[in-house]
Design brief:
Radius of gyration: 25 Å
Number of strands: 12
Number of domains: 2
Largest sheet: 5 strands, mixed
Number of helices: 9
CATH topology of the largest domain: TIM Barrel
Mean pLDDT: 92
Order of helices and strands: HEEEEEEHHHEHEEHHEHEHE
Distance between the termini: 79 Å
Low-confidence stretches: 1-17
Helix content: 25-40%
Strand content: 15-25%
């Protein structure tokens, strides 16, 4: 009798699950080959409500306001491009430019801006403008050393005064507190090239204290000034002494004289 009761209970639960009413969703992507990044690809459905994915399955039990038939197509998470120069496009007054279709058509849905030291440290402005002027892509931003040094020291080939150094450190700290990814440099380019390693370390440390990353177009990718190997050593030193993860942008050996190093 107990076995029969258990069996009937199981059947009831199974029938209840099978007859559950479909969820209402805004968008159903149906029949595509889904690549999640964590499992083998499979043919299935993706259901979306608002801006959230609510179901990834072989057969979604939903009713959708809109359906996209994706049979024969690949459905995958968007790519993240960690080095772009689309900041001007995102700030454009032209809505078509702010969509950055060249990136979207290649599957890029998130981009980093402010690389190579060019990022405006005013994160309230940089990140906040998307609230008023819609853009076609998710983005995150670095506070750029070039923009910071030019704002405080100008384009002069000299060391900052103690007061100027304090001001630059404050700009990095403020940027981090308002959402910056970290601190970027392009030490090959003036006026950033006028800075000593020690100056960069002090500023990078402000980002490191607040969980940031150091991203650098290094001082030399060839044999133009200090040499490729020394430039890589400098980037590693900045990350180590600044106590933050370090990313070297487009690392390469530029020229036959440095190949094989």
């Amino acid at each position: 009798m107990i076995k029969v009761a258990l069996l009937l209970g199981t059947v009831a639960l199974t029938l209840g699950a099978a007859t559950a009413p479909p969820q209402k969703v805004d968008l159903l992507i149906r029949g595509g080959t889904i690549y999640t990044g964590t499992m083998a690809p499979f043919v299935g459905d993706i259901a979306i409500r608002g801006d959230k994915i609510v179901s990834v399955s072989r057969h979604a039990n939903v009713t959708a306001a809109r359906t996209i038939e994706a049979k024969g197509m690949i459905v995958a998470p968007g790519f993240i491009d960690p080095h772009t120069h689309m900041g001007e496009d995102l700030a454009s007054k032209d809505p078509a430019e702010r969509l950055v279709p060249a990136f979207l058509m290649q599957g890029v849905t998130t981009a980093f801006i402010g690389n190579d030291g060019g990022g405006d440290p005013d994160m309230v402005k940089v990140l906040g403008r998307a609230k008023d002027s819609s853009v076609g892509i998710n983005y995150a931003a670095y506070a750029g050393f070039g923009a910071i040094r030019a704002k405080v020291v100008g384009r002069d080939n000299r060391a900052p005064t103690p007061a100027e150094m304090t001001q630059m450190k404050g700009l990095v700290a403020d940027a981090m507190c308002h959402g910056a990814l970290g601190f970027s440099t392009g030490l090959f380019y003036a006026p950033q090239s006028f800075a000593t390693t020690g100056e960069v370390i002090e500023l990078a440390r402000e980002a490191g204290k607040r969980g940031g990353t150091y991203d650098s177009h290094i001082r030399d990718e060839s044999s133009y000034n200090i040499g490729l190997a020394a430039a890589i050593d400098e980037a590693i030193r900045i990350g180590r002494e600044g106590r933050l993860p370090t990313h070297i942008s487009h690392i390469k050996a530029l020229g036959v004289d440095v190949q094989g190093q």
